[in-house]
């Protein structure tokens, strides 16, 4: 408005997900008026991350090293391999803290209509990894969406002849959720996947 | 988690206002996985803004020039001077689009308990500006908070002996608001400031 450069800053902040015009304006004013140290650090960190962040050779997660900290951790169980569709899913599983195996990151899910086939999401890299590592169980943690389910089924079929077990994470009623507000598909899954207690 | 640099990026994104751990993570992954061009542009723009954005010599708003685009616009009414407490307020007034005069930006409001006196918010710069410009009316658009009202009263008292009119923006019921949900203080203001129609 009164400064072209400030307008440019507001515009470039809008590339961040979930940031609209008002938030971008608030962020730009905050960075320039109140926290120039934070702004300088942010700019430097983004530049450094752009230069140095690549993919881990094993799990394909973002990392600045050849093999990420998680894959090179000797305390993790090498016999378990969890397959996820996005880095955010990997973060969520790690934050839950109950899984101690390895990961493999697909770049998305199969979606033939968008031209995304097995090569695009990294299936061949997955097979190479399985050939070279002592994996005994593959856990399919793809999203419970149509594409996620299709990808999980495809991988399960592909691994049928190998000597390893393949499992899918359980679908059901979320812990703390109320049955009344759970959708029909989830309830059907919860009934089909019921566990015998006695 | 699996990358120190990615953690640093998430941490530095948290300096933005309104960005918590989950949003910062989402932003970092988005910038690195999906929009490296946008990330590079953002980093460059922040650096450039840090180097070049200073204060307008007249209104003290953020600008990369000596005098901002608004102050150097010959179509604006030089006889009106609107005093605001923050750049965001100035943006809001400009976006409303009904005001065509000049601005002066105070750096906050008077708050003696926090050690913020007239010198800290730029009162002397305001007086210098009034001496050098053909201002006929000063419009006090400080926030309707305790500090904002105190600042407005202080400035009004300071300008009492000058040959210019001083006004305060109207307080009352917001347009589109319902009386039922308007607080008592605002309603009192709306009654005290009522306009005679006939």
From TrEMBL, chains A, B:
ZnF C4-type: positions: 56-71
Record key words, sorted: DNA damage, DNA recombination, DNA repair, Metal-binding, Zinc, Zinc-finger
Highest taxon listed in the record's lineage: Bacteria
Domain Toprim: 79-174
The keyword Metal-binding is assigned to this record: yes
GO MF, one annotated term: DNA binding
Keyword field contains DNA repair: yes
CDD domains xrefs: TOPRIM_recR (cd01025)
InterPro entries assigned to the protein according to its UniProt record, in alphabetical order: DNA_Rcmb_RecR (IPR000093), Rcmb_RecR (IPR023627), Rcmb_RecR_Znf (IPR015967), TOPRIM_dom (IPR006171), TOPRIM_RecR (IPR034137)
GO biological process, one term: DNA recombination
Protein family per UniProt: Belongs to the RecR family.
Described purpose of this protein according to its UniProt entry: May play a role in DNA repair. It seems to be involved in an RecBC-independent recombinational process of DNA repair. It may act with RecF and RecO.
UniProt xrefs under HAMAP family: RecR
Protein name: Recombination protein RecR
Organism this protein belongs to: Pseudohongiella spirulinae
């Amino acid at each position: 408005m009164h400064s072209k450069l400030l307008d440019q800053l507001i515009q470039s902040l809008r590339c961040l997900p979930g940031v609209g015009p008002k938030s971008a304006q608030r962020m730009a004013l905050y960075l320039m008026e109140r926290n120039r140290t934070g702004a300088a650090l942010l700019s430097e960190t983004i530049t450094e991350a752009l230069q140095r962040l690549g993919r881990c050779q094993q799990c394909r997660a973002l990392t600045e090293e050849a093999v990420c900290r998680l894959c090179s951790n000797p305390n993790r169980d090498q016999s378990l391999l969890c397959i996820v569709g996005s880095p955010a899913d990997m973060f969520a599983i790690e934050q839950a803290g109950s899984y101690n195996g390895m990961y493999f990151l697909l770049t998305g899910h199969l979606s033939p209509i968008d031209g995304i086939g097995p090569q695009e999401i990294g299936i061949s890299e997955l097979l190479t990894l399985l050939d070279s590592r002592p994996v005994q169980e593959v856990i399919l943690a793809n999203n419970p969406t149509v594409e996620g389910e299709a990808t999980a089924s495809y991988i399960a079929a592909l691994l049928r002849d190998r000597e390893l077990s393949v499992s899918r994470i359980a679908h059901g009623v979320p812990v703390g959720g109320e049955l009344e507000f759970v959708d029909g598909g989830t309830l059907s899954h919860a009934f089909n996947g019921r566990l015998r207690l006695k």
